[in-house]
Amino acid sequence: MGGVTSLDSEVPLENLYPALIECFGVIICGYVAGRLGVVSEQQTSGLATFVGTFSLPSLIFLSLSTLDLSSICWYFLLSIFISKALVFASVLLITLLVTRPVDPGKSGLYAIFCTQSNDFAIGYPIVMSVYGKTHPFVSYLYLLAPVSLVMLNPIGFVLMEIGRRKGQNASKLQLLLSTMTSIAANPVVLMTALGIAGNFIFHHHIPVALSAILNAFGSAFTATALFLLGLRMVGNVRNFRGEALLVPAILIAVKELVLPLVIREISSLILHSAKVNSTESIAMSTYGFLYGTFPSAPGVFVYATSYALDVDLIASAMVACTFISAPLMFISAKMVSVSNLSPKDFIPSLERFEFDLSIVGVFACVILLVVFTIKRSIWSLPQKITMCIIVSQLFGCMGVLLGGLNISYIEYVEFYFVKLGDLSSRIWTACLAICLALMESRNYATVFHLLPIFFGVAWCLPIVLITVMMLSVNFVNPHIHPGERFVYGTVEAGITIFILLVSLIVSVVYLVLQQRYKRRYARYLVYSREANATYDNPHGSQDINSSQRYIREDEPVLPIPKNEIIGSNNNDDTQPLHHLALLFFLVCSIFINLSLCIWRVIMEDITGVYVELSFLDTSLTRGQCLIVLFIFGLDIISLLHPLFKRFLDTFSQGEPIVLPSMEDLPTETQHLCDQFNTYHIQPCKAQIVRRKRLKLWEFVSCFSGEDLVSWLLAQGLVKDREEGIVYGSHLLTGRVIRHVNNTQHFTDDSALFVFQNN
């Protein structure tokens, strides 16, 4: 395949901070310039033409034509291609399965977003700062870019063309020719091919005159490209809420978490199989991890605009991905320089971090269990499973805390609790995915029947496996920390990886099915409403035919009784988006934990990336209850709000007032209240009832005593404000109005009151 040169394991990092400041500082300057109108859209277009047509192609040609191709490890390039192709195909397939009706264009666009990195505008200065200008890894960027541009993106372009031409009688040959022409005309692809050809022609020593011209264009690339990226962000920052936030979050997670881990694992396996030197293999796999953390390229936004596919979504996802990648690139770049670590160098820090996080986790678990029990949300099916996940996490955190006790044989108790909590939480994650999918398909009976099976598998299976393992297998080394190796050797490794892999597959599959059921049911509801309208309208047969467009031919259409629309069920979960967000984080945690377990099985040298993943895995594993607490925080606020309010009402604002009974009310009070309820209460409510705030609390429908007195004066019901106070006192005594905290008589001031029948 190609030669392999020795690569230094230590890389310079003194320029990392300036590089990050340079990149994102120039991006922000470009955004501000565009936001203030200093640079117009027409000028931005001209700047983009300069960067894409002159500066970047010159830099690519200059770098490739002077590159010593004998120093390239072609196995590493192969591993990058396989990794990107695997992620590309997975995103493509899942999007095709989830989207209804099937949208090949959207599938191709999402796949490109998750695999095409911003190799040059952001990746180039970062790699130069980490490895140095003369390091071979800098030159790899010019060879890695065509992996997406030439091999994977054309598939996405074809799918986007198919989606755009759906319903048209377009020739397949014409489609293929237009796609190949656009690829060949791409300046990056063209100059990559010319650069490799120039390398053989000039024997990687190009003429001085040509080199000077190319250097002039290439030297302007970095600052111009970053400034242009900031300009393109103007108007693309959107505030997504609800489910619109879920798709960008998934795309960013795949790009920033899944792709780096897949590149790292695939490159390690391929380089190891190719008998590449161990030191070089570790250096390349860690470089691949850093390469995977580069954000998505701005070109994806151009593709979305050209094909009119989710333009706002891709624009916002691109902006968020760029800034989210900053801390991840920084940490990864710092960790890339660390290799051949001894466990004693990081295990103590990891243990302290896990112990501290477990203390916080126990408190979070207790709070969540109390809140869910008091609110009786436990009776919701997904909430039952969420409760079980919390209990599993409580076991895991308590096991870590027990390990801090200096007691004989405590390590066995610690292992049992930690392993039980971790394995059961992974299984419950898959159960939550199954539950959400079946509920979305309105198959509630199946969910109820599966609930005992869930409890048996999620609790009994880990207990049996752990008990049998501990009784039949000896500790490989009782003093080995699980962060370093599996303490029960291959048996523990096999059990853990099997449960993680099955849970991950089941969770992803049923998450896909959940989205399919949701979209199908949404179309079914539209059909139901139109069918109901047709039954009520004798001339509405045309509406039935038009409503068929919402139902695919391969989907069953149930008969619908008149005036009946299936949509509500007492068992419906009231927080589907909350559980989807929780499931998303849990699946990410499983994936990272699985990657780390595979690394432990292979047991290569411990590098900085391994330490980075270990801390990330600990954060997502021991911090799961904190994630639940964050996602379901509104439940806690809604529960504690009345408690705090009652506390402040009791201790800060005095005792509740005591009114005479209704039988003991004076005749004047009864007559005035009856007259007010009959003739005046409705117009009074319409004119003075407002949303008002008193100290920490906000009241929706209330009014001040001053407002009521002023209204009574305006209506001629009283002669002056003193008489208005007497009138208001009659209304309060007669239970027409009351103080918001029921602790004060009527006054002509800012004190707040409400009508009793509100």
Describe the overall structure.
With 758 residues, the protein is mostly helical. Helix content is 71%, strand content 3%. It is built from 28 helices and 4 strands. It has helices spanning 16-35, 41-65, 74-98, 104-115, 119-131, 136-164, 172-184, 187-202, 208-218, 221-232, 246-273, 278-292, 299-307, 311-336, 343-374, 381-402, 410-440, 444-472, 489-536, 541-547, 576-602, 608-622, 624-631, 633-652, 667-679, 681-688, 705-715, 721-733; strands spanning 690-694, 697-704, 737-739, 752-755. It has a 4-stranded antiparallel beta sheet with strand order 1-2-4-3. A hairpin with a 2-residue loop joins strand 1 and strand 2. Helix 3 (74-98) packs parallel to helix 19 (489-536). The longest helix is centred in the C-terminal third of the chain and has 48 residues, at 489-536. The N and C termini lie far apart (80 Å). Residues 1-12 and 539-574 have low confidence and may be disordered.
What proportion of the residues is helical, as a percent range? over 70%
The pLDDT mean sits at 77
The helix/strand class is mainly alpha
The radius of gyration over CA amounts to 33 Å
Report the β-strand fraction as a percent range.
under 5%
Helical segment count: 28
| Multimeric status of the protein | single chain
How far is it from the N-terminal to the C-terminal residue, by CA? 80 Å
Biggest sheet record:
4 strands, antiparallel
Query: Tally of extended strands?
Result: 4
Identify the overall geometry.
Answer: globular
Strand order of the largest sheet: 1-2-4-3
- Taking pLDDT < 50 over at least 5 consecutive residues as the criterion, the unreliable ranges are 1-12, 539-574
